[in-house]
Amino acid sequence: MPWTDTDIRNLIQDENAAETLVRVAEEIGVRLAKQEQMTTSQIRNIFGEARKIQANWRVGGGSRRTDLILLKPKMVYQAARHKPGGVLKDSLATAIDAVIDGSPSTEQELKRFRNFMNFFEAIVAYHKANGGKD
């Protein structure tokens, strides 16, 4: 892997890491499309769950942090059900850890969560742009 867990942690925890975010998301998106042949619907199942968490975060839903943590076993299940997806599961699990492991400040956690969503959205975009199948 050309990216590391440290790269992913940094792009989530540093709001000025947009270049790293784009580079790593592109590498993951290409790998998911070309090597793992993961379908768009497989990725979107997890992405849809992340969007629900995002909606709760915006309205101040109390379980948002718990919901984000519980996204990890959903990704494990998805990866086990559809053999491709290990790279996505591992990358997003590291990103989730980076969101929840940083400063417990609500404002800082929200910034990290926004970076997580930007990262995930970029992965989806690069997957599709590189021939990801529906």
The ordered H/E elements are: HHHHHH
Mean pLDDT across the residues is 86
Alpha carbon gap, first and last residue: 25 Å
Beta-strand portion reads under 5%
Low-confidence stretches: none
Q: What is the radius of gyration computed over CA atoms, rounded to a whole number of angstroms?
A: 14 Å
Report on this model:
The chain has 134 residues and is mainly α. It has helices spanning 5-13, 18-34, 40-58, 64-81, 86-101, 106-129. The radius of gyration is 14 Å and the shape is globular.
Which features characterize this protein?
134 residues; mainly alpha; 77% helix; 0% strand; globular
Short description:
The chain has 134 residues and is mostly helical. The chain is 77% helix and 0% strand.
Topology:
Elements: H1 5-13, H2 18-34, H3 40-58, H4 64-81, H5 86-101, H6 106-129
